[in-house]
Design brief:
62% of the residues lie in helices and 4% in strands. It has helices at residues 53-73, 82-111, 117-145, 149-157, 165-173, 181-193, 195-207, 224-229, 236-252, 254-275, 280-287, 292-304, 306-320, 343-357, 359-370, 407-425, 438-441, 443-457, 463-480, 482-499, 505-520, 538-542, 548-567, 571-580, 587-592, 601-621; strands at residues 5-8, 211-215, 218-222, 374-377, 387-390, 398-403. By secondary structure, the protein is mainly alpha-helical.
């Protein structure tokens, strides 16, 4: 089953967000106070409220329909003609589409009120129904995987299965990792009180954190997002004290956070070994239909370019005239009066950038605003960060922001609208092909950020303005690529150790400190409290090895954006075909559509060379 797809940044300054799991079938106001402004999304075209009777009706019906599907098709997949198999796929889509809307509605509702017990009850109910339905229909994928290669080949070539051919192909390719039907059912059921329960505990615990902090002479009660936003404050003491307080809360909860991480990762690897995956990261790579070697190259080439990160922060230290620079200062403003933007100004900047690029991009963004599909401001009980949620091809996506008026908030708006445009372009696909694989999910989002950045750059006249924009850009690059690469390296190390044992809090902290040192070198000081940062990264708890998709997408887009600058308007149709393809074919085939050979190290090196050019440009501006 596929629930709603939520794309979210999991790097500084954007907080991460839980991504919905695919089962089998495959950013400050002066006082930093909680905003009193309200621009909320309108979910009424999904459901009126969490007590809408349609929800219960759909949940009851999907359970009933899943049993009927099972009765009709179980044991018969091998005898189905291509036309009949296409009908079975259409039956699944008809059955699952309403359920995915319910799941998306509950997830969106909870994201703006995470401590609401009534919403929690609904979410838990949906999880239980999901598990039940998954168990009823899991035979479908298992039986497909058992077909002969000749039969699979015939189905793939059949015109009736054109919209489902990739799903059929993948069922066969991943069959070697399947368990028996009873074992698969047990796996689904145990997740409810196993790893999924631990993940919910982590999310609810960390979302409940509040921080009392004095800034600009006033004591405020802040969310984690608001406290972390103080890293952009002009006063180094405020920045450093804020982050020390932030991490202290996680240290206070180290017993729960360590225990939760150990158990989630151990369970992941127990199942991984039972299924026969050769390494922890292989699970995600197989799910993304990417060869381990491609991701190894991605990790290696990014790690090798950490020197660019270190070079940049040495430059920034000189610009800021700091005697010492710590990790709490890496997002410090380059001037004492950083620009602030209203939400309307941010909208205008994004829309103007899209309009210059392509009318369809502009029109789709306008649709998002007109249909009130954006939840904008920080409020108590709202999840931190930003994300875009899409569920089914017939429902336009939704975007959650925590808009605080900083330049990076404008970039975040562009980023999440990139996700939305990607989803809307893919609406011609069937449900099974609608969501792009995770690494390709970041393509439109990062591309749209670059459109807005370049548009803004063209309006700048002074060297100071250009330096400020370029430093913002580089910091986002390093946060999206090198930082995510560090997170992924941390995952690889800890997964290997947790496969056959447990890790103490000290071991986890020491491992993370080593990765921080590898990325930043001697360019900044690493305060002791930063050893707790690993425990603040939801994705490593909730969606193992998801984070490398940010780096993949970022470096992919740098190469594609250079092609756009070289080819001009002729590149846009190719990009739109790529974005419209969802997951109708494997990533290599789709990337070939835009001339990107992701199997070659030379391709990825072009993106590293682009990053180096940006660092060199900053050097020239600072002379």
């Amino acid at each position: 089953m596929r629930k709603s797809n939520t794309n979210a940044k999991n790097f500084e300054p954007h907080q991460p967000h839980l991504i919905s799991v695919i089962i089998k079938l495959n950013k400050i106001t002066k006082g930093f106070a909680m905003s009193k402004k309200t621009i909320n999304w309108d979910l009424s075209n999904l459901f009126k409220s969490i007590t809408d009777p349609k929800i219960a009706t759909i949940l009851t019906k999907v359970k009933k329909d899943s049993l009927s599907f099972q009765k009709k098709y179980k044991g018969n997949i091998k005898s189905l003609s291509s036309k009949e198999l296409a009908t079975s796929y259409k039956d699944l889509e008809k059955m699952l589409t309403p359920f995915y809307r319910v799941s998306q509605f509950a997830s969106l509702t909870q994201s703006t009120d995470v401590v609401n017990d009534k919403i929690k009850v609904l979410v838990n109910t949906i999880d239980e129904v999901e598990s039940e339905v998954s168990n009823s229909i899991l035979f479908f994928d298992l039986e497909l995987g058992q077909l002969s290669q000749a039969k699979i080949n015939a189905h793939i070539k059949a015109k009736e299965l054109k919209n489902f051919a990739y799903s059929v192909k993948r069922s066969k390719e991943t069959a070697q990792y399947n368990l028996t039907e009873k074992e698969e059912q047990l796996s689904n059921l145990k997740d409810l009180t196993g790893s999924d329960a631990f993940k919910r505990l982590y999310e609810e615990l960390t979302s409940s954190f509040e921080f009392d902090f004095k800034v600009d002479g006033k004591k405020k009660t802040m969310t984690g997002s608001e406290l972390r936003a103080l890293r952009l404050h002009k006063d180094p003491k405020v920045r450093r004290d804020a982050m020390k307080l932030f991490y202290s809360r996680y240290e206070d909860n180290k017993l729960v956070l360590t225990h939760t991480y150990n158990n989630v990762i151990k369970e992941f690897n127990i199942e991984r070994k039972l299924r026969g995956y050769k390494s922890p990261i292989t699970v995600k790579n197989i799910g993304n239909d990417l060869d381990d070697k491609v991701i190894d190259v991605l990790h290696d080439i990014t790690t090798e370019s950490n020197k660019l990160v270190q070079e940049y922060y040495k430059i920034k230290k000189k610009i800021l005239k700091l005697d010492d620079m710590t990790l709490a200062d890496i997002y410090a403003p380059m001037s004492q009066s950083e620009s602030k933007y209203t939400y309307d100004q941010a909208k205008t900047m994004v829309l103007d950038s899209f309009k210059r690029f392509d009318k369809d991009f502009y029109d789709m963004a306008q649709t998002m605003f007109k249909e009130k599909r954006v939840d904008v401001y920080v409020k108590k009980g709202k999840r931190g960060g930003a994300f875009c949620s899409s569920s089914t091809p017939d429902v336009n996506p939704y975007v959650l922001l925590n808009f605080l008026g900083k330049p990076r908030d404008v970039a975040t708006l562009a980023h999440e609208f990139g996700h939305a445009i990607h989803a809307m372009l893919s609406q011609k696909q069937s449900l099974f092909n609608y969501h792009a694989i995770l690494p390709l999910c970041e393509t439109a989002s990062v591309f749209c950020e670059m459109l807005v950045t370049d548009n803004l750059k063209s309006t700048l006249k002074t060297k100071k303005e250009k330096i400020n924009l370029l430093t913002d850009k580089l910091e986002d690059i390093f946060a999206t690529s090198h930082r995510q690469n560090m997170f992924s390296r941390f995952e690889r190390i800890t997964h290997e150790k947790l496969t056959d044992g447990i890790m103490s809090t000290d071991e986890l902290c020491d491992t993370y400190k080593k990765e921080l040192k590898l990325m930043f070198g001697n360019s900044v000081k690493i305060p002791e409290e930063y050893k707790w940062e690993w425990s603040t990264i939801p994705h490593i708890y909730e969606s193992q090895f998801y984070v490398y998709s940010y780096n993949f997408g970022n470096l992919l887009v740098f190469a594609l954006y250079q092609k756009y600058l070289e080819e001009g308007q002729s590149f846009i149709p190719k990009l739109k075909v790529f974005l419209s393809s969802g997951s109708i074919d494997d990533p290599k085939v789709l990337c070939d559509l835009v001339g990107a050979d992701i199997t070659k190290k030379a391709f990825w090196q072009k993106s590293i060379t682009y990053i180096e050019s940006q660092v060199n440009e900053l050097k020239e501006l600072c002379k």
